[in-house]
């Protein structure tokens, strides 16, 4: 909780600095909203050797702060739906069975992206991402020929690290001055578990979505 409060305080301070910079710079700070799809996975499968990527979402706000004619920094506050899933299909005595297990980890993420604006429309970016765990759930969906069943279990967050750290790289293209498409890959560097005696299990996610700047 202390790390979450600190992270949000730092972000609020960055946005306040952005506003002040925008009032004095010839290149004004812009604010916006963004959202899109996550394709996330957990390294080492979180003890599941056949785990696959899980589809989730991200959504939040950002400030773009010009540093020079071709460079800017973009702090963001996002909700990130991460995790992984396992799907198994099999047949027994003519009946078809399918089960889908997913681990759903919700984070408040604070990426700080340093952007190189190759053209007014196209940019490349890289930077750290700080994440704070807010929810942890397992979901099991099972089905046979004629029935479906879904079970959701809330996990004990004390088993997980509250803080998540990663490095992101990405790119974006604005079709018009205030609307563009973005893509980013973020590799986790910290173990998601507190007391993990095996190999570290880390978050990894590819994101694609839209960004809208307010003018």
Give a quick rundown of the structure.
With 215 residues, this protein is mainly beta. Helices cover 11% and strands 63% of the residues.
Largest sheet: 8 strands, antiparallel, barrel
Distance between the termini: 35 Å
Secondary-structure element series = HEEEEEEEEE
Query: What overall form do the CA principal axes indicate?
Result: elongated
Structural class, from helix and strand content?
mainly beta
What does this structure look like?
By secondary structure, the chain is mainly β. The chain contains one helix and nine strands, in the order H-E-E-E-E-E-E-E-E-E. The chain has an eight-stranded antiparallel barrel with strand order 1-2-3-4-5-7-8-9. The longest helix has 23 residues, at 2-24.
Main features:
215 residues, 11% helix, elongated, single chain, mainly beta
Secondary-structure map with pairings?
Layout: H1 2-24, E1 30-42, E2 54-66, E3 71-92, E4 95-117, E5 122-143, E6 148-154, E7 163-176, E8 179-188, E9 203-214
């Amino acid at each position: 909780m202390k790390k979450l409060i600190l992270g949000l305080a730092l972000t609020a301070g960055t946005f306040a600095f952005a506003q002040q910079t925008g009032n004095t710079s010839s290149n004004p700070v812009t604010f916006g909203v963004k959202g899109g799809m996550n394709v996330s996975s957990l390294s080492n499968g979180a003890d599941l050797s056949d785990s696959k990527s899980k589809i989730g979402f991200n959504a939040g706000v950002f400030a773009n702060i010009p540093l020079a004619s071709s460079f800017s920094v973009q702090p963001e506050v996002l909700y990130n739906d991460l995790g992984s899933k396992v799907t198994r299909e099999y047949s027994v005595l003519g009946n078809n069975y399918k089960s889908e297990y997913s681990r759903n980890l919700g984070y408040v993420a604070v990426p700080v992206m340093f952007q190189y604006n190759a053209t007014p429309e196209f940019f490349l970016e890289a930077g750290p991402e700080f994440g704070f765990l807010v929810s942890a759930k397992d979901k099991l969906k099972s089905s046979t020929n004629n029935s479906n069943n879904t079970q959701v279990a809330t996990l004990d967050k004390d088993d997980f690290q509250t803080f998540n750290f990663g490095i992101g790289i990405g790119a974006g293209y604005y079709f018009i001055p205030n609307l563009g498409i973005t893509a980013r890959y973020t590799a986790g560097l910290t173990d998601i578990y507190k007391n993990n005696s095996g190999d570290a299990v880390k978050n990894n996610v590819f994101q694609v979505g839209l960004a809208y700047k307010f003018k």
